Every structure is written in structure tokens, then in C-alpha cells.
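Comment thread on ticket #2218

A.B. wrote:
> Attaching the input chain for the structure job we discussed in standup.
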Amino acid sequence: MKALNNIFLALLIIFALSACSKSEDNKGPMEKAGRAVDEAVDKAKEKTGQAMEKAGEAIKEAGEKMREGGEKAKQ
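C.D. wrote:
> Ran it. Output below, let me know if you need it in another format.
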């Protein structure tokens, strides 16, 4: 009985270790989909950051023009 328990434990450890494989070929469809989602989110963050920079520049330019217009109106 003790030998059977040892064999079962050894098989369980082998199975557990094989399930922890880091190879890309052994990844399931959900892991691959998760990676695709992560990449899409990273791209979206990059594009959003670029858009925010452009919007910030446009707002800054508009503020400068408003200040210049206000200074001209005072004269």
C-alpha cells in the first residue's frame, strides 16, 4: 500500500511539473487570447498617450492665442 501511495505521489508531481511548462507551444487558446488582449491594450495605451499629448499641445496653443487676444483687447 505504501509503495502504491509513493507511485501515485510521484505521478502527481510529474503531472504537476509538466503542467507548468513555459513553452509557447504548450499554451492553450485562452492563454494565447490573453496575450493578444494584453498586446492590444498596450497598443491602445500608446495611441491614447499620443492623442493626449497632441490634445495638450492644442490646448496650450489655444491658451496662448487667447492670452494674446486679451492683451490686444486691453490696448
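A.B. wrote:
> Thanks. Noting for the ticket: The chain is about 85% helix and 0% strand.
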